[in-house]
Amino acid sequence: MKLIIERAALLKGLSHVQSVVERRNTIPILSNILLRADGGALRLTATDMDLEIVESVPAEIQAAGGTTAPAHTLYDIVRKLPDGSQVEIETNPDGGSLTLRAGRSNFRLGCLPVEDFPSMAGGDLSHRFTIAAGDLRVMIDRTKFAISTEETRYYLNGIYLHAATADTVPVLRAVATDGHRLARVEMPLPDGADAIPGVIVPRKTVMELRKLLDESGETVEVQLSETKTRFTLPGAAGDGVVLTSKLIDGTFPEYERVIPSGNDKILEVDAKEFAKAVDRVSTISTEKSRAVKLTIENGSLTLSANSAEQGSATEEIEVNYEASKIEIGFNSRYLLDITQQIEGDGARFAMADAGSPTIVRDTADSSALYVLMPMRV
Question: Does the domain made of 259-372 have the CATH classification 3.40.50.300?
Answer without folding.
Answer: no
